[in-house]
Specification:
The chain is mostly helical. Helices cover 72% and strands 0% of the residues. The chain is elongated and about 65 Å long.
Length: 102
Amino acid sequence: MSATLENLQIRLLKLEEEMASLRQLLMGNSLEETPAERGRRLLAQARLGKQGQKAAAVKAFAQMGIDQAPVPPEQLRKMMAACGVRPEDNFFSRGIQEMRGE
């Protein structure tokens, strides 16, 4: 497995979190982070995780044989209309409501 910069950053962030948890357990100190510090940490995790999610989606699509770009919404509406789906029927919305028991 090749180590990309994003992978290394994710691994380092996880290692730092593990070390902080171990220090807290061993020392008995509570390492409290401020709301700003927590927010900064969570945003960094989200940014780093985004690359992994994109890579996983690309891999999954490739395994399923999907090699085309997504269909734009307007084209999708035209395709659905060509198949006889009428927007005024609210078919999909009704199905969701029925599943929820509304």
